[in-house]
Write a structure and sequence with these properties.
Keywords: ATP-binding, Nucleotide-binding. The protein is of the alpha/beta class and 482 residues long. The chain has 18 helices and 14 strands. The chain folds into three domains: 248 residues, P-loop containing nucleotide triphosphate hydrolases (Rossmann fold), CATH 3.40.50.300; 93 residues, no CATH class; 89 residues, Arc Repressor Mutant, subunit A (Orthogonal Bundle).
Length: 482
């Protein structure tokens, strides 16, 4: 079935449309400076294809939530949910083929990247039975796939960039058609931009962006000046889903409006200057009225709940807390680690975020200063996810020494295997290994096992019945077949 989406008018007034089936197979990149009409273009595409294909929108500014009233999209405020809920939401969106707008407006830049990474990864990791075709629109894509490092944590940047790369490079076979829009091509990671076969290039002024846009459109460098002269709302289109030659298209009108609109000139107040000065510096006993909230405040995260509990208890300063023996401190740390691992949301949160939780829980447990720094906590967290909460057991010295050949984030999966091998228990499932690694991806868990085996730390065997067992030659331990 061929479905064409009317996008607007060409130079001669003829209709210009996008072949929706071809778009699903070849992806789309939209570029243009702020105010060039990118969001208007995306809204036109979403409105005209609504009801024809599932639509999933990553919306950093909350502009597309207005699609919900007219076209039935589910609008979700990410700030109201934890990472685990976002991952479950993504899985259900794929299962039930629901069109959704995920608004990231209430989050800071790092929170937006972390949320988008978790959501896109869960879309990508959906079971094969749920690989239905869907348009995945990411506005302001340079925020989630930056070309260089920024002020966010490196693990967050890598997770977000990896999720965007998977969407554009490998999403097609899973039914995910990436549509990314960016203000500047120079700020967007090249391996994300290069996977698009369709382009809609709007007005831009910087030479480096004009040159890259001209290259993608197959134009000569001297023709790149035309990109600077494009009117607002007009784009140069090229690609198998649109046109085989660069074609200028003026995007047509839309039926819904964004919550934020372009600024318009308004008349200035006509009051005399002395009256305005009096209004600005007038005294008063009553405080100014609080602004009306736009929406309900986000649900508190576990760490915020702990902070509130500490404030309500008016805890004593660290200097007033009784000294603890080494045994007591070790017991408190083990109990805190046990509580963190038991929290369902902790599996989707990074060690740097959980470390804040750890310090607060230690404080509430009676430790004035946390006994572990961030690297030490990361290692102990990996051990705890494998079920080892104490480091006093001498029988584990060999396993911990062997694990030093691996990165700290792989300590948990290795110790999970070592624990099963030491006890002669069945080999842990891929799901258990993935959970100990802090991911929901079974493919990532299998690649992790392959890496550990490549370091000659484990040997994996599959018998004729298809049951797997894993041996650790250096320790002389082996799991039972499962």
């Amino acid at each position: 079935m061929t479905v064409r989406v009317d996008m607007g008018a060409g130079p001669g007034g003829q209709a210009v449309s996008i072949d929706l089936e071809e778009l699903l197979a070849t992806r789309l990149l939209v570029q243009g400076n702020s105010g060039s009409g990118k969001s208007h273009l995306l809204r036109r595409l979403l409105e005209k294809s609504a009801g024809q294909v599932q639509q999933i929108v990553i919306d950093p500014e909350g502009d597309f939530v207005t699609l919900a009233d007219r076209y039935g999209h589910v609008a979700v405020e990410a700030a109201d949910h934890g990472v685990g809920e976002i991952q479950r939401l993504a899985a259900r969106v794929r299962e039930h083929r629901a069109s959704l707008v995920l608004s990231l407006e209430g989050l800071e830049a790092e929170g937006q990247m972390r949320c988008a990474a978790a959501f896109l990864a869960a879309l990508f990791d959906a079971p094969r039975d749920h690989w239905y075709p869907a348009l995945v629109v990411v506005d302001e894509a340079q925020l989630f796939a930056p070309s260089g490092g920024g002020e966010v944590a490196e693990d967050v940047r890598r997770a977000s960039l990896g999720a965007m790369t998977n969407l554009m490079c490998r999403g097609r076979k899973r039914g995910l058609a990436g549509i990314v829009a960016t203000q500047r091509l120079a700020k967007l990671a090249k391996n994300v931009a290069a996977e698009a076969s369709n382009f809609l290039m709007g007005r831009t002024f910087l030479d480096i962006d004009m040159a890259r846009a001209a290259d993608l459109l197959g134009m000569e460098r001297r023709q790149a000046e035309a990109i600077r002269d494009l009117p607002r709302g007009t784009f140069l289109a090229l690609g198998p889903a649109i046109s085989r030659r660069p074609l200028e298209v003026a995007i047509g009108p839309v039926e819904t409006l964004a919550r934020s609109v372009s600024p318009k000139l308004l008349p200035l107040p006509s009051a005399p200057a002395e009256d305005l000065q009096g209004l600005l510096f007038a005294g008063g006993d009553e405080p100014p009225p609080a602004p009306e909230p736009v929406r309900a405040p986000p649900a508190p995260l576990p760490s915020e709940q702990l902070l509130a509990a500490m404030a309500s208890r008016a805890a004593a300063p660290a200097s007033a807390m009784p000294a603890r023996s080494d045994e007591e401190s070790a017991a408190i740390v083990a109990e805190v680690l046990r509580a963190i691992v038991a929290d369902a949301d902790s599996a989707g949160r990074s060690a740097s975020v959980l470390y804040q939780d750890f310090t607060i829980r230690c404080r509430m447990g009676g430790l004035g200063q946390p006994p572990l720094d961030l690297p030490g906590f990361t290692r102990r967290l990996s051990m705890a996810r494998a079920g080892l909460y104490s480091v006093d057991d001498a029988d584990w010295d060999g396993a911990l020494e062997t694990a030093r050949l691996l990165p700290d984030d792989m300590l948990g999966p290795f110790l999970l295997l070592a624990k099963a091998a030491r006890e002669g228990a069945p080999t842990p499932s891929d799901e258990a290994i993935a959970q100990s690694y802090g991911t929901a991806s079974l493919g990532r868990a299998r690649r992790l096992l392959q890496y550990i085996e490549s370091r000659e730390l484990i040997v994996s065997r599959v018998d004729l019945a298809g049951k797997r067992s894993i041996a650790i030659p250096r320790l002389g331990w082996s799991t039972a077949a499962a």
